[in-house]
Amino acid sequence: MQDLASVRRLEALGFRAWPAASIQYDGSWQVRLTAGHPSKRLNSVNPLDPSDHRDIEKRVERTAQRFRAYGRPLVFRQSPLAPPQLDAYFDAHGWRRFDETRVMTAEIGHLDLDAVLDHLPIREIGRYVDASIQVHGRDRALKPGLTEVLSSIRPEAGFFVIEEAGSGPVATVLCVHDNDMAGIFELATRSDSRRKGHAREVVTTALRWARMRGAEKAWLQVEADNVAAVSLYESVGFRETYRYDYRQAPETADGD
Fold first, then answer.
1. Residue 24 is inside which H or E element, if any?
2. Is Transferase included in the keywords of this UniProt record (predicted)?
3. With the C-alpha atoms ordered 126, 129, 135, 138, is the resulting torsion angle positive or negative?
4. Judgement on whether residues 112 and 87 belong to the same structural domain of the protein
5. For the domain that residue 128 is a member of, what is the CATH number?
6. For labelling, which of 59, 86, 119, 242 has a CA lying 20 to 30 Å from the CA of 98?
7. Contact (CB, 8 A) for 218 and 106
8. What residues make up the domain containing 38?
9. Gap between the Cα atoms of 182 and 218, Å rounded
């Protein structure tokens, strides 16, 4: 049986670590919207109570109106906290299910981090954003929105970049230290520099940094079909805690 208390804590950590510009509530449904960035985590409805399933049709329409006002497609992010009746409603109306994601955790004290090379996080958000966009191969038009999101993070954030002389950044990751927890986000390795150990190096470096600041447990989110990333995280010591996915009406298309 799913440990909903653990799910609630990890969901709350995720919201703090990846803050949306606008947060509203419809009952226990958290409506997150961000005009400057298309991330689904920043632009989705997040039901947070399995027992809150009243007036589903009316509430879905209300949230659809909010998303239309933002120019965003309506997306529901369905974790174990979402009521089963809501999924049944989506099934009955032909809403598709996509981008299943695994939430994984690890006890930092059980990880082998002593031989990890120390890399200090960089201080300039703009420099990290430039490196992240380059390594991910993303559109540079996302820079203002990503900078705004990262600047809004309230817990301590470590921005890590692995660089090679002559070729620039090859791997990036964001580590958010929140009390005894450390969240790993936005891991990427440049396409021409994969399978060289850069991803493991930058992740373990970030975890070592978090451990030195008192973090005891690490967590992350990774798409279930990203076999290479899941394999990397499992080899480091992460194990699955729960999954979530997204639901969307058949007449709309998901963004990035």
1. strand 22-26
2. yes
3. negative
4. no
5. 3.40.630.30
6. 59
7. yes
8. 4-101+244-248
9. 5
229-237 contacts at long range (C-beta below 8 A, 24 or more positions apart): 229/187, 229/199, 230/102, 232/199, 232/200, 232/203, 233/104, 233/203, 234/104, 235/200, 236/106, 236/111, 236/200, 236/203, 236/204, 236/207, 237/106, 237/107, 237/110, 237/111, 237/112
Based on the fold, state whether residues 95 and 110 are members of the same structural domain: no
Three-class HEC string of 173-188: EEEEEECCEEEEEEEE
What residue type is assigned to position 57 of the chain?
A: E
Is 22 in the same domain as 63?
A: yes
Same domain, 75 and 39: yes
Q: Do residues 12 and 55 both lie within one domain?
A: yes
Q: Residue 114 corresponds to which tokens in the numbers above? A: 């002593």
Task: Report if residue 17 sits inside a domain.
Answer: yes
Low-confidence ranges of the chain (pLDDT < 50): 254-256
Count of domains for the chain: 2
Contact call for residues 223 and 98 (beta carbons, < 8 A): no
Q: Which two tokens stand for residue 107?
A: 């006890």
What is the spatial distance between Cα 151 and Cα 126, in angstroms, rounded to a whole number? 10
69 with 129, same domain: the answer is no
Phi, psi at residue 152, to the nearest 5°? -90, -5
Write down the pLDDT at residue 253.
Answer: 52
Give the residue among 44, 30, 28 at the shortest CA–CA distance from 255: 44
Residues 139 and 211 reside in one and the same domain: yes
Q: How confident is the model over 68-119, as pLDDT tens digits?
A: 999 999 999 999 999 999 999 999 999 999 999 999 999 999 998 887 777 8
